[in-house]
Amino acid sequence: MSLARRGRVRGLAGLTPDLERAIGKALATGTPPRPERRVALAGSGGRLLGGAEGDAPFALRAPVGTVVENAHPTFRWRSLKDATRYTVTVVDDAAQRDLITSQPLPAEPSGKEMEWRLPETAEPLQRDRVYRWYVVATLPGGEEVQSPGTTGTARFQVLAAPLAAELERARALDPPSRLAMGTAYARAGMNRQAEREFAALLRSNPNSAIARRLLGNIRRRR
Questions:
Q1: How does strand 105-106 pair with strand 85-92?
Q2: Would the pLDDT of 90 be above 90?
Q3: How high does pLDDT run on average in the chain?
Q4: What would the mean pLDDT of 40-44 be, rounded to a whole number?
Q5: How far is CA 176 from CA 97, 159, 180, 182, 214, in A?
Q6: Which residue has the higher pLDDT, 44 or 115?
Q7: CA distance 188 to 163
Q8: Does residue 96 sit in the same domain as residue 185?
Q9: Domain of 115?
Q10: DSSP 140
Q11: Which residue, among 132, 144, 153, 40, has the nearest Cα to 90 in the 3D structure?
Q12: Both 7 and 83 in a single domain?
């Protein structure tokens, strides 16, 4: 892989021109691209927006304040002590309308991570749209506990179609390219995934100043 004129990259055929230019700039500067689209999401860094820590009686793990690639995402949360079952509800944030609620999910032991994936039989979430979600835990006496509470919000955005296609092109490269994947994730606003790719790039190239700068710069965006 090398830089050609005007920031074009040799050795990564099949990528979009925008991604090629972004990779070229990343190679030249050590700075990952900024997200192509910006949306006000709750809890950058995984925090819930709008309430104190006590407003989340049990932790919602993901997706919170992030972008998801899959239009049938997986929702993860920590179990609540003594809960017997859970339901997950996904809400269209703009329309303020519940879209789907899961069937009752049997509880795991307290402190264990729970998860539920939007079924493939369900209508996929719309790309480039913002959603929020919440979990209701039921206790043995029938009492219900919701997380987040009334002043907390857990939002996420489904990745826009052009950026999802861009990621697929980067993923299809043969041989695989950590640089291309990290850059594509950064353009998508998926900083955790970009950090993972740049960390792997540095492990494979421990003497590379550019790889070290890319990793350091994406980490500073947490």
A1: antiparallel
A2: yes
A3: 87
A4: 50
A5: 41, 22, 8, 11, 18
A6: 115
A7: 6
A8: no
A9: 53-158
A10: T
A11: 132
A12: no
Structure tokens belonging to residue 37 = 């689209």
Give residue for tokens 């899961």.
Answer: 102
Residue 63: inside a domain: yes
pLDDT of 145 > 80? The answer is yes
* 44 within some domain: no
Nearest to 114 by CA among 105, 122, 123: 105
The pTM for the full model equals 0.83
Whole-number Å distance between alpha carbons of 17 and 37: 17
Going through the chain in order, the beta strands assigned E by DSSP cover 2-3, 9-10, 60-62, 66-68, 74-78, 85-92, 97-101, 105-106, 113-117, 130-138, 144-147, 155-158
pLDDT for position 108 = 79
Residue owning tokens 């925008």? 18
* Span 152-188, pLDDT tens digits: 789 999 999 999 999 999 999 988 999 999 999 999 9
Choose the final residue of a domain: 110, 126, 158.
158
Q: What's the rounded Cα separation, in Å, for the pair 16 and 171?
A: 13
Domain boundary among 158, 177, 208: 158
CB atoms within 10 A of CB 168: 11
- For the chain, the domain total comes to 2
Is residue 31 located within the same domain as residue 102?
Answer: no
3-state secondary structure of 108: coil
Residue 10 shares a structural domain with residue 97? no
Looking at the fold, whether 20 and 92 belong to one and the same domain comes out as: no
